[in-house]
Amino acid sequence: MFPNLCIYLIDQDSERQSYLKHIIGFVEGELCVVADPTEIELPSLDKGSACVAVFLGLDLEPDQRLLIARTLQDQFPGLPAFQLYDEERGLPEKLEGCDNVLGGFKMPCLYDDLMALTHKAQVYQELKTSDTQTSRPVELFRSLSGSSRATRRVNKMIEQVADSEATVLILGESGTGKEVVARKLHFHSVRRGKPFVPVNCGAIPGDLLESELFGHEKGAFTGAISARQGRFEMAEGGTLFLDEIGDMSMPMQVKLLRVLQERTFERVGSNRTIPCNVRIIAATHRNLEDAIKHGDFREDLFYRLNVFPIEMPPLRDRVEDIPVLVNDLIHRIENEKRGSVRLTPAAIAALSHYRWPGNVRELANLIERLAILHPYGVVDVADLPEKFRPTGELPEAMQLPQVTLEGEEPGTVINAPRLPNDGLDLKAHLNSLEQSLIQQALDESDGIVAHAAKRLHMRRTTLVEKLRKYGLQRHTESPGI
């Protein structure tokens, strides 16, 4: 059995063993255990141990590396491995069929590389060893995540209208999650067991939309070689979601209005009236009242749809939800077996200061991109695409206005930060301040952890834990090299 945490080194070079033992113990606070590469069975590696990763030595032959990696993969599927390499020999080729080998580790090593590797290994272990039966079901990804006031208000409105038969009109910018709201409305309604049928009215040409919605009979038009159900029939007893309703042509608006009024329709090419029992939920990113003024949308249809409007706030107006959304998006990637990634608190704080013109859809695309660029890695501010990084010396959340107060001595005054009118997230603000001061101490101490700890009046081990917590990285060689 090993102590709390360890890195398992398979290398015969005594000088390299001593070097890695020293820096891993000093920088990471973990034990480096050395193994003989000839012991392929790895008898000392107990399944109950807290081994973080395995390092495959520089001098191992390719066949030997492959055999060890496959043995690890078979016996300890949640344990990641890394191939050591140096400038002279370069990174070895990827070991075929060994998904547990997550990459290379360059010697001599850098502090930030060692921290990043350990975090990457822990994320990989966390994902591989978690109980797949506890993965959240797909339905939970339909929820509107977040705890901001705007999100709570939308969720409250959904609860109020979900069980009714009222027509709902969802308004908001593109990418805010209008379909998520529609699906949640259906999921919490009495129609839950019936179909949810979405139609993007803006993506279907006007001359085909009538057939798409109402269906057609055989021979109704050129190419209609057989009869076909429309979306209204498919959604019978359930919910029909008309997305981008503002892009629907005027002639189709007239036909849709008739269906909403009479609750019946006819297939194209037929005179048989078909009754329909569907709940209509519509959505648009357009301002329909302006469209009415310009003659692009029927006023009577607008009032038919606008029974219960729900306005989706843009992501920039609910930045408090970003940490929850990031967590949910990462869980979705993991649930779909597409890898994983983690973001440091500093990276999430940086994302909170971006304007998000593409809203939640843009955030989802970013998380997917980071999972591809940094598989099982920990993403810090420097790893974000440039446009997502904050500008200026301090994050906006730390630039508080000042207020003048009376000092302790009579006739004296002091300047103190003033609480903004709309309040602030105190925990996030203090975390940002702590990160900034730690980074300053590291910079002024040339990256030496012990010296920075003295400047901050704390123990070195405490500072190391805070560096792990915040994912702070330094592009300097590790102490003891």
Automatic annotation (TrEMBL):
GO molecular function terms attached to this record: ATP binding; sequence-specific DNA binding
InterPro entries registered for this protein in UniProt: AAA+_ATPase, AAA_lid_NorR, FleQ, Homeodomain-like_sf, HTH_Fis, P-loop_NTPase, Sigma_54_int, Sigma_54_int_dom_ATP-bd_1
Superkingdom of origin: Bacteria
Domain Sigma-54 factor interaction: 144-372
SUPFAM superfamilies assigned to the protein according to its UniProt record, in alphabetical order: Homeodomain-like (SSF46689), P-loop containing nucleoside triphosphate hydrolases (SSF52540)
Coiled coil (residue ranges): none
Nucleotide-binding recorded as keyword: yes
UniProt keyword annotations, A-Z: ATP-binding, DNA-binding, Nucleotide-binding, Transcription, Transcription regulation
Gene Ontology BP annotations: regulation of DNA-templated transcription
PANTHER family the record matches: PTS-DEPENDENT DIHYDROXYACETONE KINASE OPERON REGULATORY PROTEIN-RELATED, TRANSCRIPTIONAL REGULATORY PROTEIN
Full protein name: Sigma-54-dependent Fis family transcriptional regulator
